[in-house]
């Protein structure tokens, strides 16, 4: 499994995508922006490009010839994506901390970069992972439909969350009202969202593996 | 000892199927796996490497069932695909660094030796290698992890005659000690006349014959005769071509009656393949 992960790091993806979190993270410096987009860029750019690379480099055949189990193949790929996702979130958080200090008196119409907001970003990625991997591993090379559906679902989640943040008094209070100032509330939201991310991603791996078993290379 | 034992392998696709494919390869020999394009060579090879699931049959490599001992066997099987490229924008060096981590028996010294022997420059990208060099790189990898069985899919296709000859000499050298065995598929039959010990011929998903090379060829006769003589043997011929002088046709040696006075010769592999693949056309 570690050698497969090493393979992903060294061959699977262009080093540009390790730099990308630094660039997209900087978008957090736009005052009062729709910050879900910062994380969504990972889904828009990195994922389709990476999987196009796998397809053109015959990664499926290459990996199929190696002495590895199909379970480890899926596990390594999901783990690799999760590492990249966390990289995007960590950089966005760092830029977010700078952003709130740069503009201390900003009025945020959309979610501000609070701890709870990063939790919502994790849920968005959880939805993305579940749909993407479940669809991708039907063939293990066709990424178009899987990307389209998973990106649409993640974007819809972001849209609905923002809408509720404006329209629903409860959500507004949790993220923008008194809840935003309560560390306990924010950390609880993050904890629940992290659990959702973990469960959904594990499910993505599990469904992906079951489907990959039936794939003929 | 049998390094490869394929028994009644069946695989059904929408427009093609492998039907009861069976053949065996003895340790220390080269087997040529021939057939026209689309006859089922690559599908059979994929099933040996457990890349596709079988509808029926069994495959044992190095004495072990491939479906049950896939990982162990992949440590001991080397492969080269003539026409498939992996990560070809990467340098040999980078690719090797990744690949070697997967093999328990990887030996750097052997790897260096083969790089030198095959004149492979580690700093070259895969895309910069000629087709022959790519096959040599695959061989270097396989031999460095101590592969005992080499499965080569069309390794000589697209190579110039000198490069082909060079590669065939390497194959012969490899099996000399009797430890390594090679199964290689090709439609370039002259390669096999040079180096194969056994021939397995697949046609339309079915094995026509699998035998030691001389015996394989000896099972067929190529007949040359007049139009009148054609009428005598027509029903026994596998297929035939007519011309202004008469006919040329392929027949199983067992069906050939020498007393009819028709000129016969031992065909070469190419002739067997050509006439056999005309079989269906003849009845259309």
Characterise this structure:
The complex is a heterodimer of chains A (about 220) and B (about 280). Chain A has about 220 residues and is mainly alpha-helical. In chain A, about 80% of the residues lie in helices and about 0% in strands. In chain A, α3 runs antiparallel to α7, α5 runs antiparallel to α6 and α5 (about 70-100) packs antiparallel against α10. The longest helix of chain A is centred in the middle third of the chain and has 33 residues, at about 70-100. Chain A is elongated. With about 280 residues, chain B is of the alpha/beta class. Helices cover about 35% and strands about 30% of the residues of chain B. Chain B contains 11 helices and 14 strands. Chain B has helices at about 40-50, 70-75, 90-100, 110-115, 130-145, 160-175, 190-195, 215-220, 225-235, 270-275, 280-284; strands at about 1-10, 15-25, 30-35, 55-60, 65, 75-80, 150-155, 180-185, 200-205, 205-210, 220-225, 235-245, 245-250, 265. In chain B, β4 (about 55-60) and β5 form a beta hairpin. In chain B, α4 (about 110-115) packs antiparallel against α5. Chain B is elongated. Chain B starts with a strand and ends with a helix. At the A-B interface, α1 and α4 of A face α2 and α3 of B.
Question: Helix/strand/pairing class of chain B, anyone?
Answer: alpha/beta
Helical fraction of chain A: over 70%
Low-pLDDT ranges of chain A? none
Mean of the pLDDT scores of chain B? 90
What is the chains' assembly state? heterodimer
Distance between the termini of chain A: 20 Å
Element order of chain A: H for helix, E for strand? HHHHHHHHHH
Query: What coarse outline of chain A follows from CA principal-axis ratios?
Result: elongated
Could you tell me the number of beta strands of chain B?
14
Order of helices and strands of chain B: EEEHEEHEHHHEHEHEEHEHEEEHH
Structural class of the secondary structure composition of chain A?
Answer: mainly alpha
- Helix segment tally of chain A: 10
**Low-pLDDT stretches of chain B:** none
| Most extensive chain-chain interface | A-B, 19 and 27 residues
- Average pLDDT of chain A works out at 93
Helix residue percentage of chain B: 25-40%
Query: What best-fitting shape of chain B do the alpha-carbon axes yield?
Result: elongated
Cα Rg of chain B: 21 Å
């Amino acid at each position: 499994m570690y050698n497969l992960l090493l393979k992903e790091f060294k061959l699977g993806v262009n080093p540009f995508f390790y730099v990308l979190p630094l660039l997209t993270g900087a978008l957090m410096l736009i005052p009062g922006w729709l910050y879900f987009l910062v994380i969504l860029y990972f889904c828009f750019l990195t994922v389709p490009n990476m999987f196009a690379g796998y397809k053109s480099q015959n990664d499926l055949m290459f990996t199929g010839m190696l002495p590895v189990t199909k379970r480890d193949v899926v596990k390594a790929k999901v783990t690799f994506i999760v590492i990249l996702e966390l990289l995007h979130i960590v950089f966005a958080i760092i830029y977010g901390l700078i952003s709130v200090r740069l503009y201390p008196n900003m009025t945020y119409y959309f979610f501000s970069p609070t701890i709870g907001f990063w939790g919502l970003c994790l849920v968005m990625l959880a939805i993305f992972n579940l749909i993407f991997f479940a669809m991708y591993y039907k063939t293990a090379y066709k990424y178009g439909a899987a990307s389209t559906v998973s990106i649409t679902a993640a974007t819809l989640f972001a849209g609905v969350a923002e809408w509720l943040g404006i329209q629903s008094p409860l959500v507004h209070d949790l993220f923008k009202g008194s809840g935003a100032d309560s560390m306990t509330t924010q950390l609880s939201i993050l904890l629940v969202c992290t659990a959702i991310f973990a469960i959904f991603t594990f499910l993505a791996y599990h469904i992906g593996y079951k489907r990959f078993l039936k794939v003929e290379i | 000892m049998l390094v490869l034992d394929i028994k009644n392998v069946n695989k059904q696709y929408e427009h093609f199927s492998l039907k009861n494919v069976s053949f065996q390869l003895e340790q220390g020999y080269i087997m040529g796996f021939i057939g026209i394009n689309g006859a089922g060579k690559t599908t059979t090879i994929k099933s040996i490497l457990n890349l596709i699931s079988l509808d029926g049959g069994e495959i044992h490599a190095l004495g072990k069932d491939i479906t049950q001992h896939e990982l162990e066997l992949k440590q001991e099987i080397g492969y080269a695909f003539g026409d498939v490229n992996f990560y070809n924008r990467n340098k040999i060096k980078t690719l090797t660094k990744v690949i070697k981590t997967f093999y328990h028996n990887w030996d750097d010294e052997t790897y260096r030796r083969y790089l030198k022997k095959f004149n492979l420059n580690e700093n070259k990208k895969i895309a910069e290698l000629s087709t022959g060099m790519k096959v040599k790189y695959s061989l270097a990898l396989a031999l460095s992890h101590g592969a005992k069985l080499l499965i080569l899919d069309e390794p000589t296709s697209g190579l110039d005659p000198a490069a082909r000859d060079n590669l065939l000499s390497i194959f012969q050298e490899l099996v000399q000690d009797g430890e390594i065995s090679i199964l290689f598929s090709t439609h370039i039959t002259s390669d096999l006349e040079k180096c194969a010990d056994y021939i397995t011929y697949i046609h339309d998903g079915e094995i026509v014959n699998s035998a030691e090379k001389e015996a394989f060829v000896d099972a067929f006769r190529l007949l040359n005769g007049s139009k009148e003589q054609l009428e005598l043997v027509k029903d026994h011929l596998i297929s035939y071509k007519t011309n202004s002088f008469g006919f040329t046709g392929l027949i199983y040696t067992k069906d050939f009656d020498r007393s009819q006075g028709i000129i016969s010769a031992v065909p070469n592999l190419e002739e067997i393949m050509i006439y056999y693949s005309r079989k269906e056309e003849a009845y259309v």
